[in-house]
Amino acid sequence: IPALDQKNWKYPQGMFSWIAMACHWRVPDEKYGRPGWFSNARILPVNPGVTEFPPSQPAVYVVFEIPALDAPMQMNADWFVLGKDGKPIGKAMGKDAQLLDMNEGYGYLEVRQPEGGWQPGAYLVKIYISSPGQQIHALSEVGTMRFVISESEQAARACLDDSPR
User: Fold this and answer.
1) Of 16, 30, 39, 88, which one has the fewest beta carbons inside 10 Å?
2) pTM for the full model?
3) CA 122 → CA 82, 118, 148, 163, distances in Å?
4) Taking CA 117 as the corner, what is the angle to CA 112 and CA 118, rounded to the nearest 5 degrees?
5) Looking at residue 29, what is its pLDDT?
């Protein structure tokens, strides 16, 4: 399973045109087509490539672009705390899913803070693809991303300009 690169998020990786871990996401002000027409709103990451977050961060976002779809699909994420050996410990701490309809090319997965808050340490996000309603299994996994929760000054500054849009 490929570890999706954080440093070069603007380049294709696996099935993604690009994918990035971010503080949040935003929709640019630009408009496509005539008013009232269906548009494929672009979603862009806020502070893309950040991999170290403070314990106060309510959620970490995996923002992506994929080539246009010819059928609906679902992107899924499970996240785990990592042990000292770099392997996931126990069951998934949380799950998220986003349904992408035909011709949608942008999306995000929200890795939410667990009950009781983030504990400092390393975490792993497993990303899956499936058809709507299909059960997720090991063969559905398309990549992984890692991030760290830290009380460092760098982590505290990582998302200062972050505001949901």
Assistant:
1) 30
2) 0.86
3) 5, 10, 4, 24
4) 75
5) 66
CA proximity to 108, closest of 120, 98, 118: 98
**117/126 Cα distance (integer angstroms):** 20
Strands (E), 1-82: 18-22, 24-26, 44-46, 52-53, 59-65, 73-81
pLDDT in tens, the chain (165 residues): 678 876 777 778 888 999 999 999 988 765 555 555 555 678 889 989 899 999 999 999 999 999 878 888 999 999 999 999 989 999 999 999 999 888 788 999 999 999 999 999 999 999 999 888 788 878 888 999 999 999 998 888 888 865 443
Helix, strand, coil % over all residues of the chain, rounded to 5: 5, 40, 55
Q: C-alpha angle with apex 18: 94 to 33, nearest 5 degrees?
A: 105
Judged by DSSP in three states, 42 sits in coil
Backbone dihedral angles phi then psi of residue 157, each to the nearest 5 degrees: -85, -15
For residue 154, what are the CA distances in angstroms to 43, 158, 160?
26, 6, 11
For 157, the enclosing helix (H) or strand (E) is: helix 153-158
Q: What single letter denotes the amino acid at residue 66?
A: I
